[in-house]
Design goal:
It is a single chain. A seven-stranded mixed β-sheet has the order 1-2-3-4-5-6-7, with helices on one face. A six-stranded mixed β-sheet has the order 8-9-10-11-12-13, with helices on one face. The chain is of the alpha/beta class. The protein is globular and about 65 Å long. Helix content is 32%, strand content 18%. Helix 7 packs antiparallel against helix 8, helix 8 crosses helix 10 and helix 9 packs antiparallel against helix 10.
Length: 326
């Protein structure tokens, strides 16, 4: 698979910008509607009002609200946030109504606090990576969102005839990651648990700066979703994945691929092979090949190495001093 689309843009950039011209919600089913955004927002209709899964980015809030207007069936009963990144919760203030309950994982506030603490640092680095894709980034004011319900493991609620289960999956892009499961309909909303591009190597260490993500927690969270037996899997970007067999096959392959890279890295460390050699030499077998759109196998190898061993590679004392390695 190419990392670029037909217009020459990186695949992720095209997905991020896909909603800019959207004027009406896209019907995924007759009761689930999509607004495309940096991370998509989804509206679920019930007989007693609506549920929103993610709200989109700050600058897209009013557009997303307008996009969903014709699809609304009643009052907005709940907003579920799948992780504490602004492209998931930035639009919350625009959507809030009297009686709307905001639901997020118990570590949502901690994740927001982490990004607030490092905001100038992360903005500078993100600007170099995303300035041409996300407009007016430097002027953005990220809202403060305080959840009404903090999920510890698993939380169930019902609106109208529909039941929702919010399940903690801390192996995603943030430690407060959750998925939203609708057991009767066999639908799961995974947000960016599997990264911004489905069936790509997960980005375990972002270039903009963030806490490294654990491959083992990723595998555990993936397995949590796999055991649900979903018939419709709706991610944070792109088209939904339909059919229990297709979903199971994709998740089996993704699990096997990440597990392969994890084990190959551990084996290499135990054999005494240096990290740069492992970055060059570890490749996925053809049967387990994944896209490398936002994360790469070699980056995952280095992240695993440093997660387990720290930043001292035991190859030179240079890195022990306050002098650049160069």
């Amino acid at each position: 698979m190419s990392a670029n689309t037909e217009d020459g843009k990186p695949l992720l950039a095209s997905l991020v910008q896909a909603g800019e011209q959207q004027t009406e919600a896209i019907a995924i089913t007759d009761f689930v509607h999509m607004a495309k955004d940096i991370s998509n927002a989804y509206l679920v209709n019930t007989a007693d009002g609506d549920v929103l899964v993610n709200s989109g980015f700050i600058t897209s809030a009013e557009r997303n609200k307008s996009v969903f207007a014709k699809a609304r069936s009643g009052p907005l009963k709940a907003i579920v946030l799948t992780q504490a990144h602004p492209d998931h919760y930035g639009g919350v203030p625009a959507f809030l109504e009297p009686g709307t309950s905001v639901i997020a994982e118990r570590r949502f506030a901690d994740t927001c606090a982490f990004f607030n603490m490092l905001d100038p640092y992360i903005r500078r680095r993100s600007g170099k990576l995303w300035a041409s894709t996300i407009k007016n980034r430097d002027a953005l004011v990220v809202p403060t969102v305080t959840p009404d319900v903090c999920v510890d493991g698993r939380y169930s609620f019902s609106v109208g005839e529909r039941q929702f289960e919010v399940i903690s999956t801390p192996g995603g892009e943030a430690p407060d990651s959750v998925v939203v499961w609708m057991p009767a309909e066999r639908i799961v909303f995974t947000g960016n648990l599997f990264g911004p591009v489905f069936m790509s190597m997960p980005n375990l260490c972002t270039l903009r700066g963030d806490k490294p993500r654990s491959a083992r927690r990723f595998l555990d969270s993936l397995d949590t979703v796999r055991k649900l037996g979903a018939e419709l899997l709706i991610t944070g970007h792109g088209e939904p994945i339909r059919g229990a067999a297709q979903i199971r096959g994709d998740l089996d392959k993704l699990h096997a691929a990440v597990a392969y890279v994890h084990q190959a890295t551990v084996d290499g460390m135990n054999a005494g092979t240096d990290v740069h050699t492992l970055m060059r030499d570890i490749h996925l077998p053809d049967a387990l090949a994944l896209g490398e759109f936002h994360g790469k196998v070699s980056w995952a190898v280095r992240t695993l190495w440093e997660e387990y061993s720290g930043w001292f590679h035991f190859d030179s004392t240079t890195s022990l001093y306050g002098v650049p390695r160069a």
